[in-house]
# Entry
Amino acid sequence: MPYSLSEFSTYSGESVDKGDPLEAVADSPHPSLTRETGDAIFALEYTPHGGLDIYSNGLYVTTKREYGIGGVIVSKGNLTLNFARNDNQSSCERWQRIDSALEQARDDLYADVSDDRLTAESREAMASDGDDESGEQWADRKLFQLATESRISLEEIQAVPRIGWVDGPQKGADKLVERGYVVLDTSDAATQRLRDPAGDENISIAVPEAFGVGEQAESEGVWTGYHRIEDESQLNADQQRYLRFARVLAAELGIDRDVYYGEASADAWTDGRTYIVITDSAVTSRQRAVWMYDLYLMMLHEAAHDTSSRDRPSHGHHFESTFRSLVEGPGNQRSFAELVQQVVDEGFESVFEEYGVGC
# Structure
């Protein structure tokens, strides 16, 4: 429905006056801003997902969502529209002036929005801004995402000697951040703009020299691809149950190795002599019958390794023969079946207490 710039207007004989456009955000619960220029009336609010409604001299044209704000713009005078009359032509001089004024109004609105309320779309838009060709207009705002999903400002980034880059979650990166390193996550659009300013050769944002995250994590001893959880009280109830059952299995199957819980891309690993570490992916289902058998296979798989199963373990003929004999051995199958029946009859806690396993 049209906005009217006059006190009253009609369309097809009916009143279509929606009132003063400046009142469009008067009752908005969000940060808002109103402004009037010689070309248009702006009524903007911080609702990035709502879209910005564009009116040509009071008649609706389109809703734009790329500005990171909501509200309405009503031009004073007609805009030059495309053939379908559902968008502005880029050559329209009035729209060019409106667009320029809109960028400034949007910046003024962003200035009133706290860092913790900025959406990803807004942060990306702000990261793309720059009034001095350096992209540093918002240098003190926390626009960029660390590997821990917390935020950091350009000023803070530029204050450190080196930074790291990751593209999404990476083990060890979060531990480095906790130790004071700046590791930036480029899966976040705003942070990607910091590393690659949209291919704009006119914007060159100075950032420190980069270090290799994996190499730094390994040198710090926080991640080598395999991480054993030392404090088992951190495990949730399911993880503690898996670990305790795996320890019972080790005792029943005659596997003379300590059993721990850890984090890795692998389902489990062992040094081939003294320990086995299982991870979340060792089990494929939360159904009791399924995960107990998963752990039976996993424990025997690692027991079949007589050397380290980290990195690139050998799964050749000797390993396959050993593993198959362990899984199909009647003694192991019988021990597993009896243990499962005991759990069914007595419950996990009773069995765990009997075997003296804990976390």
